[in-house]
Write a structure and sequence with these properties.
It is built from 2 helices and 12 strands. It is α+β, with helices and mostly antiparallel strands. The strands form 3 sheets. Strands 3, 4, 5, 6, 8 and 9 form a 6-stranded antiparallel sheet that branches. A 4-stranded antiparallel sheet has the order 7-10-11-12, with helices on one face. A hairpin with an 8-residue loop joins strand 10 and strand 11.
């Protein structure tokens, strides 16, 4: 009787190669998805850390004012310079602007000056208004670029369903309490009078209200994440979540 030759048939080899290719493809797809997920997580965490750092610096009294403005008699003049510590300028806070559909977030200093006959029995919000806080746009600004080309894809202030793009943190002149303001930049740009009536600081809808800024990955992977402004104090003032849903950031 003849002996059967050892080896694999063409069908067996084809099956082996097909299964191997499928497993390799699945591994590569899984690895690519894992990398994109890790990058998006890093994008969101980095943005949250940047915003949180602005809050922490203000809470801890870090004065980043360059001294390229002067203050006297309730007026902030950005055309003259006074060294920090030798003027009436009071570093009051930070303005953070989220550029819609872009990766840039820019922070500016907010400076005020003590008015004559100031009444310290007023509420923190009223005192902030009396100190005439102004945004200094010509110096001392800082731009943070969200890693991995993630972008600000939407925003919403739940109290009125409005889209917002600016977030101000202002420290009370009499306490360590930080008051938050979320609002839409007038005409899409800033000027030094924006935080003064009839602007942000006198509008109750802007003061201490929650808002959400959504972040989307560069390749549209999954659902957006969100940076949450809570209006609270301390570490809970700036939140982060990876479970943004439809309606979280569809402000009009």
């Amino acid at each position: 009787m003849g002996q059967r030759s050892e080896g694999y048939t063409i069908v067996e080899v084809s099956l082996f190669l097909g299964i191997s290719a499928l497993l390799l493809t699945m591994a590569l797809v899984g690895t690519g998805l894992s990398i994109r997920t890790t990058r998006f997580t890093d994008s969101t965490r980095s943005l949250h850390s940047y915003v949180q750092q602005q809050y922490d610096d203000l809470l801890n009294g870090v004065n980043s004012r360059f001294g390229t403005e002067s203050c006297a008699n309730g007026v902030v003049n950005t055309g003259a310079s006074q060294t920090p510590g030798t003027s009436n300028c009071l570093f009051m806070g930070k303005l953070i602007v989220f550029t819609p559909n872009a990766s840039d977030v820019t922070s500016y200093n907010i400076v005020g000056t003590e008015p004559a006959n100031v009444d310290y029995s007023k509420s923190d919000e009223q005192l902030i208004y009396d100190f005439a806080p102004k945004v200094v746009t010509n110096t001392g600004s800082d731009t943070f670029t969200i890693p991995w080309l993630a972008t600000i894809s939407g925003s919403k202030r739940p109290i009125d369903g409005k889209a917002v793009d600016a977030f101000a943190l202002i420290r009370s002149p009499r306490s360590n309490r930080i008051v938050s303001y979320v609002f839409k930049q007038p005409n899409g740009s800033y000027n030094l009078s924006t935080l003064i009536n009839p602007g942000v600081a006198a509008n109750a809808n802007n003061i201490g209200k929650p808002a959400t800024f959504c972040v989307s990955s560069a390749d549209g992977l999954g659902q957006p994440s969100k940076i949450m402004i809570t209006g609270g104090q301390g570490q809970d003032a700036i939140g982060v979540s990876f479970d943004a849903v439809a309606g979280d950031c569809n402000g009009s």
